[in-house]
Amino acid sequence: MNSNFKLLFLLLLTSTTFIGQSKSDEWHLMANSRENYFGVAIANGQIGIVTDDTPLKTKEIILNGVYEGSPENGISRIVRGIEFLNLHLNIDGQEIKSDNISNWNQVVAMKEGTSTTTFSFKDLANINYTILANRAVPYSAMAIVEITPNKDIEILANNYMIVPDELKEAKSQFRVLKDNQYLMPVFGTTAKTLNEKYTVSAATTFLFDGTSEELKHTGNEVGFTKKLLKGKKYRFAIAGGICTSKDFTDPLNESERQPIYALQQGIDNLLSRHKQAWAELWKTGDIQIEGDLDAQQRVRFALYNLYSYIRPETRQSIAPMGLSSQGYNGHIFWDSELWMYPTLLALQPDMAKSCLDYRSDRLQKAKQKASIYGYKGAMYPWESDDTGEEATPTWALTGIFEQHITADVAIAFWNYYALTQDKSWLRSEFKVLKETADFWVSRVVKNTDGSYSILNVVGADEYAQHVDDNAFTNASAIEALKNTIKAATILNEPIDPKWKDVSEKLVIHRENGITQNYKGYKGQIIKQADVNLLAYPLHIITDKVQIEKDLDYYAEKIDKKDGPAMASGVLSVLYSRLGDREKAYEYFVKSYLPNSRPPFGVFSESANSNNPYFATGAGAMLQAVIYGFGGVEQTDMGLKYNKGLLPKQWKSLKIIGLGVDNKTITVE
């Protein structure tokens, strides 16, 4: 362990579990400090609601799969939605604000997918505010408010909506709909995205326990007044939803149906269905660590975030920051296939399949990109949005030259078949493997000795641009080609002889016994793991001695200041498989601890950045647990369960819900 990391490790280890936390347990992350606050995305795979430290307010809402051109550079960016759960609350004529509350506390309940903020308002009342993006009803969300008066009080509660700057032409309306004896008050706001690509509509209503209160529309707010008695708890909720013209021909009417549905369901029924949907996820995919509460919390928090950012059968994938922000414009990178997908494949195959559906739907655009640059087959974009066209900023060379993404996609497709052994699915998706294989044989150049090279690329190590024979690019192409040959054999499809020739003769350079990052590499600092990926998750380097040499050499080459979190997760897997318990654990801790931000320990991309939540890093950390300590191995015949390696700091490790048969393994 290097001295700088050891110091940081000791400093954080001697603090509370997470900075600003107290009384947390394996399912609850509790914050009691608002200093340097980084919120959590309370998400359901369709909408992400980011928590704030300001009472009764959310920070922002992110809409999955909805993109519009950004004003800064014109490229697409995931859209922020209308914030529809915000509340202005007055007690005895005094408005609750950020600076006039006390005893602030916030709890993220990972098991139930909720965030609850508790605070006191002067000597008048104690207030709980719980938000959730309903896991069972994907376009809906709810905020539940509980007020316990310390004396007789009168409250004025008004729901208001915030329209972000990137939306325009916002219009609000309040109306009371009637069907026989049912009165249904609905408050809504509709706006256009910046270039009018989409219409965004949000609508809400109030839910009450018992008798409904009369709602009044004042300005751009809708609410009610109520006298409360000392000591008698009072509960109400704001419930509604948000829809866009991406998914609905008439988003305005569909958004209004969300609060109408909520009115007929009621608070408890909506909450129960939401909790049950989360319970099913944990039942079919969980990781339990005995003897190390800190590791348990962080691993489960990583799982919680991955599960929050995707839904099965939606044909959507996951961006690096999930639904927590507009980071990286919400685009889809290799982060999905290489870093997040392996965890989902092991624990939630239906979620993993959605990532593949996303790529399959955009195969024609990948074929178009290949043809644009004079290649055959399919060339997937480095950054992808809803269109499937290249969405990388034009100034970034990665958009044209970081081409290993095409192999990463193909490998993910093969691994899904390997897990499920579903030949009918493989037949339906074989075109992805074939077209990407055709790209690689058109991309290589033949050397005078009969070998092949791939020239002028940006590799996984993005510090090295315009290099030849990048190790990971070449190796991932080899593995993708070999997988395509296997698939063609299973399906009795024609095998292009070029696939075999290139897969056997594409060069991986070595010098002085070390696999070279690229041809002519001279030991420069690298951004992240590149060569080490050839041993895991790829299967190109299998010799233990070679793996050890490459580990020893490149572990010290990775940028310790600005390198992203993923490298440490991969190194942890490799050290686990080599049987080095101490180094495996060291790199496991290093994969998350320097990147944790207060008060909940949300992931940042690097030790030196503040851009949480970095789902990519969470995926790498989880791979260290599943495919490292857990001994799980992806093979062509499905998951293989090796002995595993338990860190001495843990008493046991249990992984629940592995593979298509929901297997549970325990490492003791």
Automatic annotation (TrEMBL):
It comes from the Bacteria. Transmembrane segments: none annotated. Residues 41-245 form the Glycoside hydrolase family 65 N-terminal domain. Residues 300-521 form the Glycoside hydrolase family 65 central catalytic domain. GO terms for biological process: carbohydrate metabolic process. Keywords: Hydrolase. This is Glycoside hydrolase family 65 protein.
